[in-house]
Structure formats: structure tokens, C-alpha cells
């Protein structure tokens, strides 16, 4: 059974129709790369998955439960879905460790000790333990993003949503972050990754979803998607631009 | 708002105008006054409660009018009125008497609002005043006279005042009388008795028209002026009481008659109006006179403490209201948002002094009578809170949306995200504008002197009314305010530096 599923979701900002009916499903343990031209609606789609953005119509079902409009139910389900942002969005007034600890204590009700033990383990996993007591302003972009990933993982999520996690990074640190994500995927994490990193999509993803004009224009395994035999004209022009 | 320093004359004129406005707004409404009177009359037994000691006779006075009433270096009220009222009260069997400092022009409104039970402040009995309050029998004959600087020989009669600048005290009889009898005089309206004489001595005015006893006392104490021409009027001083307290008035009249009969009244008038008049003019004083400050140190200290108390309490209230107001303005609930905007727009759109007087003099007409300290802190807190509301809202809105999204994506509630993530960041951004706002609050706190709170500025005025040393006193008081505002600036800056480790 699909872990996360959408049914005909649409999203409009006023007259501007951004999503035009998206049916999507991801199985536990799958990694889906979402790619497509700028403005095509990738971020909007991803943000609909945990209701950061409310779809105009359509339903989102997570682990058999409908993500309803009632806030408390929503908070409960969101806690089981991690999200990583292009701009990191670390809490600047807290140390790296405290960033990872706060949501655990506040949402999961863990004690400080428990939360710190888990937090340190995760910082170690993303290679950031040495910086546990640093404030975000002392960290590079790549370091910030790894702390942000640890913060999301600390909630023990069942699925991780990434929105262009490496787009704001200097090229030389992109790999630090991609390595962490690759390890996660290998450990069996369910992941939806909006990305421009074609190498990552090709090597790590189980499926590549191409979103264009608010619709899923293709949903293929990477070897098919990137194969020379793919005759979808839009995909070919897109790939010609980014590769 | 009186945020920028104004010249003393201009400030006096501005404030005089406001006082008059508020008198019109709160005081001279006969219908309301009558209702108030009836309410109180219905309770009855005021005199009995005064006699049994259950109630204290609260006497409003502007103790800047020697020899009738003034404040000595220890902060005690002295003068003919003070001693006579105490003696009369004792003879009338009234157990407790307390004197409350208030600007002269506020005494009649305060009587109408039942903020005080009696006015004893060298008040002339007039028909206009008699319409809204009652007077006791005459306790001292007065009358307006003209005073000029010693070297000035250009004024000898009322006719000579035409085209001249005449200093008068706001709310006193001189104002109306001159408008009627010498309309060609240019009136310079000042707040206090002292400012009036100083104006003539310093050449800011050509002459002073005021009660003869006060002028003579000034000459006896300080010199530099002389009385010219004949007395202009012969009116009489009386003590003012609310119309509803006829029994108290009658008790005072009986006591006054007794004192006149047994000679104690004559002894008292001799003490205050004759003994000192012979003592001659004092020597010229140096420009800055540290003795003025040293002699009044106890008084200044207590004024400073009152100021600090007022500032601290209003600061807390302001923070509380500002946070509540800011949260209301950011709320998802339409009525709350509306309430927050209304608060900010009304309070920021009206002068602080008007709000202060509304709270203290206006609300009693609606049955809400607040002690001066409560009214002052409430008004200051309300006023400053409206600015803090906007500071709070602006700071919260300046925190990046991504912060809330990150918190909520972890499953934190909106409230938790605000509390742990947004508000701590907003607080740091609030500190510099908050510091500015609290500096403003400190400066505005001087204005609560107008509702009888004995804080620093009022203490300064009472010292000047005794020493006539405005230069030294205002300089020193200004210095104290300067230190206070700098402490606040320093404190916010330090907190900011401490908190800003992450920026
Ligand atoms: N809050 C909003 N209000 C109005 N329009 C919006 C809003 N958010 C996104 N849009 C519009 O929706 C469209 C899709 O935006 P979206 O961010 O989903 O695209 P994207 O595929 O993620 O693009 P990119 O690769 O540049 O990130 C764009 O035209 C954008 O201008
Ligand atoms: Mg995007």
C-alpha cells in the first residue's frame, strides 16, 4: 500500500492555475526525484504533500489517514513527515544541537536527555557533531543544510520531503549534502526530492517524476527517463538545457 | 506630544491651553456636576464620617503661592491656608486632614469630580465659581494689585497697562478681570506664581497682576519688584467645597467665627502677613546656586523615587499591553485584529496630556474614580503600550516566514512556533525601538505632575516656588532625567549585546 498518495490535487493562486490535477503515490522505502522546468509547480506540489500549502481541490492521504483541515490532526501527521528547505530555515537563535532538540521535546515530548542523545547521534550521522554548540551564523551553507536534515530526522519521520536542498549551496559543498541523502536512501528512507541534480536523480532515485505546467508529464525509472530512447519532446529540451 | 524640549514660556503656554481645554471638557459641565452632587448627597453623613475619623478631609492646594501655601525644603506644605485649614478642621471636630498638590486650575474640576473634598489655595470667591461649587465665608480679604520691576516707572495706574505685557497665572481671577477692565493689555499666561514674578523680574513681562498678599510676600522675601497704583479690586478669599457638602461648609463657617472671636485668627494673620513683610529684600543670588539643591535634597530624592516608581510600573504595563496589542493585531480573529488597530489608532492619534486628564478628571463622571498614581501609571502605560504594540507587530512580521514553516513542518503548533521560534527572534529586533520608546516614556512621566503626583518635575516646581531659583532647579532636574534616560538606553543596549550572540 502506498505510504503517501495524492488524488487529483489542484492549486490555484487567484486566476493562476499552478497545479492541474496531480495523482501521485509513493511506496515505503522508495526514492522519487521530482524534476522539471522552473515555475512548473514542483515546490507547490511538494508543499501540498505536508499541507504547507493547502490544495485548492483534491485529497492527500498519508499512512491511510486523510490530511484534513483540522489543525491538531495535521500537526500530528506533519510530525511524521520531515521537510528540508532550499534556504535551510535553521532557527538562528539556537545552537545546532538545540535546533535538533527543540522539536523533539516540543512535539514528541522527549526529555532533554533523550532528545540530546538522539540529537548528537544524528549530528554525528550527518558529520556535524563537532559543531553541535555552534550557532547557525557560524556554519557554512552545506553545514547548515546537514543540521537541517538532522533536525527533520530527529522526529523519526516516515517520509522525507526535500525542496532543492542543494540549490543554495556553493558547488564544492553540494556533495557533502548529497552524500548524506544518498546514505539515507540506502538505509531505506522514503524520500521525495525536488532537485536539479540529475546525477543524484539518475543514481539514487527509484523513479523520476517530471512536472511541467502543473501536471505530471512523466513518471519513469531513471534509466528509462534518461535513456536516449525517451522521445518526450519537453523532457528532451529540458534535459538538453540542464545536462 | 510633548517629546521635544520646548522653551519654558512656550511650554507654559501650551500647557496652559491644554489645562483650559480640559477644564472645559471635564469641569464646566453643570448638568454632570449636579448629578455627581446628588449622588454624593444621597450617601449623606460626610461630616459625620469626617468627625469619626472614618474619612479624611482631602484638601486640594497648589502649594506654589506663598504665603498662603508653599512647600518647604523638607517637602512639607506650609502657609496661612495650611495652618488655618488645620485649625478650622480641628475646631469643627474633623479628625484627619490631608493636603494634595495640584495645579491651581485643576482644583475646581477636582472638587466636581470628588477627587478632593476641599480647595484651599488662595481661591477668590466668584459668581462663576459659585455656580459649580460652594464657598465658606470670607477667611481673608484679598484684591488684585499691580507689581512691576523695581526700576520700572512706566506703570502707575490701570490705564498704563494698555499695550503692555502682563504676567498672570493660568486659571486665576486676574485673567478674566484684565480681559474685562483692560482689554488692551497683552496677557502672558504662566503656570505658577513663581513664573509670574520671575517674568516681571527678568523683563519677560512689564507687570504682574495678582493678589496683593502674594505680591507683598514675594517682595518681602526676594525683592526686585514693587507694588504700584491702587488696588484694582477688593475680593475675598474663601475655601471651596462641593455643593453636596453643605454641612461641612457650615461647620467650617462656625469654626471660623469661633477663631475670630477668640483672637486665634488674628494671631495667625499676623504670623503670615506681617512679621515677614518687615524683613526686607534679600541679597542678589549667584546665577547657579548649589545650596538650592542641597537644601532640598530630601525633597528631590523622594521626587526621584516617585518618578522611578511611576516609570517602572508604566513600563511593565506598557510591555504587557504592547504584547497583548501586538498579538491581537497579528491574530487570525477579525474582532481581535480590529480591537488592536482601534487601540493603536485612538491612543496614537490623541495627545498624551488629554488622555491623562481624561483618565483622571473625565472618568470620575462615569463613576470611575482612580487614585492619582493609578491614573498616571494607567495613562502612561496605555500610551506607551500603543507604540509597543506596533513595535511588537513589526518585529514579529520581520521574522522570515521560513522560520514558522520549519517549525510547523516538524509538527509544532502555531502557538509553539510563535513562542519558541518567532518571538525570541522578534524580541531582539524589538530592543532598540523599545529602548527609544522607554526613553520617551521616561520623559512623558514628567507630565503626571499635572494630576498631583509628586514626582521629580513637580518637586522641582515646588522648590522653585520657594526659592525662585528656576535656573538651578530646572538644570538639575533636567540632568536627573538625562541620567535616567541614559540608564535605560544603556540597559537595552547591554541586553541586546548579550542576546545578539547569534546574529
Ligand atoms: N504564494 C504564491 N502566490 C502566488 N503565486 C505563487 C505562489 N507560490 C508559487 N506561485 C507561482 O506558482 C508557480 C509555480 O511555482 P513553484 O514554486 O511551485 O515552481 P517550481 O517548479 O518549484 O519552480 P522553481 O524550479 O523555480 O523552484 C509559479 O508561477 C509561481 O510564481
Ligand atoms: Mg521550487
Automatic annotation (TrEMBL), chain A:
Q: SMART domains in the record, alphabetically?
A: AAA
Cellular location(s): Cell membrane
InterPro entries documented for this protein: AAA+_ATPase (IPR003593), ABC_ATPase_HisP-typ (IPR030679), ABC_transporter-like_ATP-bd (IPR003439), ABC_transporter-like_CS (IPR017871), MetN_ABC_transporter-like (IPR050086)
**Domain of life, per lineage:** Bacteria
Give the matching Pfam families: ABC_tran
Alphabetically sorted, this entry's keywords are: Amino-acid transport, ATP-binding, Cell membrane, Membrane, Nucleotide-binding, Transport
Q: Which CDD domains match?
A: ABC_HisP_GlnQ
ABC transporter domain location is 4-238
Q: Does the keyword Mitochondrion apply?
A: no
Claim: Glycosyltransferase is one of the keywords in the record? no
What is the recorded membrane topology of this protein? Peripheral membrane protein
Q: Which GO terms describe its molecular function?
A: ATP binding
Instruction: Report the family membership.
Output: Belongs to the ABC transporter superfamily.
Question: What is the protein name stated in its UniProt record?
Answer: Amino acid ABC transporter ATP-binding protein
Provenance organism: Streptomyces niphimycinicus
From TrEMBL, chain B:
Span-the-membrane segments of this chain are: 304-328, 340-361, 373-392, 446-464, 470-491
**What PANTHER family has UniProt attached to this entry?**
GLUTAMINE TRANSPORT SYSTEM PERMEASE PROTEIN GLNP, MEMBRANE COMPONENT OF AMINO ACID ABC TRANSPORTER
User: What species is this protein from?
Assistant: Streptomyces niphimycinicus
PROSITE patterns xrefs: ABC_TM1, SBP_BACTERIAL_3
Q: Which residues form the ABC transmembrane type-1 domain?
A: 304-492
Specify the protein name: ABC transporter substrate-binding protein/permease
Q: Where in the cell is it found?
A: Cell membrane
Q: Name one Pfam family in it.
A: SBP_bac_3
The record's comment on protein family reads:
Belongs to the binding-protein-dependent transport system permease family. HisMQ subfamily. Belongs to the bacterial solute-binding protein 3 family.
Q: Which residues form the signal peptide?
A: 1-33
What top-level branch of life does the organism fall under? Bacteria
User: Signal: is it a keyword of this entry?
Assistant: yes
Keywords on record? Amino-acid transport, Cell membrane, Membrane, Signal, Transmembrane, Transmembrane helix, Transport
Print the organism lineage: Bacteria, Bacillati, Actinomycetota, Actinomycetes, Kitasatosporales
Amino acid at each position: 500500500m502506498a505510504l503517501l498518495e495524492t488524488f487529483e490535487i489542484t492549486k490555484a493562486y487567484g486566476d493562476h492555475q499552478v497545479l492541474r490535477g496531480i495523482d501521485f503515490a509513493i511506496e515505503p522505502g522508495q526514492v522519487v526525484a521530482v524534476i522539471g522546468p522552473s515555475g512548473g509547480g514542483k515546490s507547490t506540489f511538494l508543499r501540498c504533500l505536508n499541507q504547507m500549502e493547502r490544495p485548492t481541490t483534491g485529497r492527500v492521504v498519508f499512512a491511510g489517514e486523510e490530511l484534513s483541515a483540522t489543525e491538531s490532526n495535521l500537526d500530528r501527521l506533519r510530525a511524521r513527515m520531515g521537510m528540508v528547505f532550499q534556504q535551510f530555515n535553521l532557527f538562528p537563535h539556537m545552537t545546532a544541537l538545540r535546533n535538533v532538540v527543540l522539536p523533539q521535546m516540543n512535539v514528541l515530548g522527549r526529555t532533554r536527555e533523550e532528545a540530546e542523545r538522539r540529537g548528537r547521534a544524528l549530528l554525528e550521522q550527518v558529520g556535524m557533531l563537532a559543531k553541535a554548540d555552534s550557532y547557525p551564523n557560524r556554519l557554512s551553507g552545506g553545514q547548515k543544510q546537514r543540521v537541517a536534515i538532522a533536525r527533520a530526522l530527529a522526529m523519526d519521520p516516515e517520509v522525507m520531503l526535500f525542496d532543492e536542498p542543494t540549490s543554495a549551496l556553493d558547488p564544492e559543498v553540494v556533495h557533502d549534502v548529497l552524500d548524506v541523502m544518498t546514505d539515507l536512501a540506502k538505509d531505506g528512507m522514503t524520500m521525495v526530492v525536488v532537485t536539479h541534480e540529475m546525477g543524484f536523480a539518475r543514481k539514487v532515485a527509484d523513479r523520476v517524476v517530471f512536472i511541467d505546467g502543473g501536471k505530471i508529464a512523466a513518471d519513469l525509472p531513471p534509466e528509462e527517463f534518461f535513456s536516449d530512447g525517451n522521445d518526450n519532446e519537453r523532457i528532451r529540451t529540458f534535459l538538453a538545457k540542464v545536462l | 506630544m510633548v517629546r521635544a524640549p520646548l522653551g519654558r514660556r512656550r511650554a507654559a503656554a501650551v500647557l496652559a491651553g491644554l489645562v483650559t481645554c480640559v477644564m472645559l471638557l471635564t469641569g464646566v459641565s453643570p448638568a454632570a456636576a449636579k448629578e455627581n452632587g446628588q449622588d454624593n448627597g444621597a450617601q449623606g453623613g460626610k461630616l459625620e464620617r469626617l468627625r469619626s475619623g472614618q474619612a479624611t478631609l482631602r484638601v486640594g492646594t497648589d502649594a506654589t503661592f506663598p504665603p498662603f501655601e508653599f512647600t518647604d525644603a523638607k517637602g512639607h506644605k506650609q502657609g496661612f491656608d495650611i495652618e488655618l485649614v488645620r485649625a478650622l478642621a480641628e475646631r469643627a471636630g474633623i479628625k484627619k486632614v490631608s493636603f494634595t498638590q495640584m495645579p491651581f486650575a485643576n482644583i475646581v474640576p477636582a472638587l466636581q469630580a470628588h477627587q478632593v473634598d476641599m480647595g484651599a489655595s488662595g481661591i477668590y470667591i466668584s459668581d462663576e465659581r459659585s455656580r459649580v461649587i460652594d464657598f465658606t465665608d470670607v477667611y481673608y480679604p484679598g484684591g488684585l494689585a499691580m507689581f512691576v520691576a523695581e526700576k520700572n516707572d512706566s506703570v502707575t495706574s490701570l490705564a498704563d497697562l494698555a499695550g503692555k505685557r502682563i504676567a498672570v497665572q493660568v486659571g486665576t481671577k486676574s485673567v478674566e478681570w484684565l480681559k474685562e477692565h483692560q482689554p488692551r493689555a497683552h496677557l502672558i499666561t504662566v503656570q505658577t506664581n513663581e513664573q509670574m514674578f520671575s517674568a516681571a523680574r527678568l523683563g519677560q513681562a512689564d507687570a504682574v497682576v495678582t493678589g496683593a498678599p502674594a505680591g507683598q510676600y514675594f517682595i518681602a522675601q526676594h525683592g526686585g519688584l514693587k507694588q504700584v497704583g491702587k488696588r484694582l479690586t477688593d475680593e475675598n478669599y474663601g475655601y471651596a467645597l462641593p455643593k453636596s457638602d453643605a454641612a461641612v461648609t457650615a461647620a467650617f463657617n462656625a469654626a471660623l467665627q469661633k477663631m475670630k472671636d477668640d483672637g486665634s485668627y488674628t494671631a495667625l494673620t499676623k504670623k503670615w502677613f506681617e512679621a515677614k513683610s518687615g524683613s526686607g529684600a534679600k541679597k542678589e543670588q549667584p546665577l547657579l546656586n548649589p545650596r538650592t539643591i542641597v537644601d532640598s535634597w530630601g525633597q528631590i530624592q523622594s521626587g526621584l523615587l516617585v518618578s522611578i516608581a511611576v516609570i517602572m510600573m508604566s513600563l511593565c504595563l506598557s510591555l504587557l499591553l504592547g504584547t497583548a496589542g501586538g498579538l491581537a493585531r497579528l491574530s487570525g480573529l477579525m474582532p481581535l485584529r480590529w480591537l488592536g488597530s482601534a487601540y493603536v489608532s485612538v491612543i496614537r492619534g490623541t495627545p498624551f496630556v488629554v488622555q491623562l486628564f481624561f483618565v483622571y478628571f473625565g472618568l470620575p463622571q462615569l463613576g470611575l474614580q482612580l487614585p492619582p498614581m493609578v491614573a498616571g501609571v494607567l495613562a502612561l502605560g496605555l500610551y506607551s503600550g500603543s507604540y509597543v504594540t506596533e513595535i511588537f507587530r513589526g518585529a514579529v512580521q520581520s521574522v522570515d516566514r521560513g522560520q514558522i514553516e520549519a517549525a510547523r513542518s516538524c509538527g509544532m503548533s502555531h502557538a509553539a512556533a510563535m513562542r519558541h521560534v518567532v518571538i525570541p527572534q522578534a524580541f531582539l529586533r524589538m530592543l532598540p525601538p523599545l529602548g527609544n520608546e522607554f526613553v520617551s516614556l521616561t520623559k512623558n512621566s514628567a507630565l503626571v505632575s499635572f494630576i498631583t503626583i509628586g514626582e521629580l518635575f513637580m518637586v522641582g516646581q515646588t522648590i522653585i516656588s520657594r526659592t525662585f531659583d528656576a535656573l538651578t532647579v530646572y538644570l538639575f532636574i533636567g540632568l536627573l532625567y538625562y541620567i535616567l534616560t541614559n540608564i535605560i538606553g544603556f540597559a537595552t543596549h547591554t541586553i541586546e549585546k548579550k542576546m545578539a550572540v547569534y546574529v
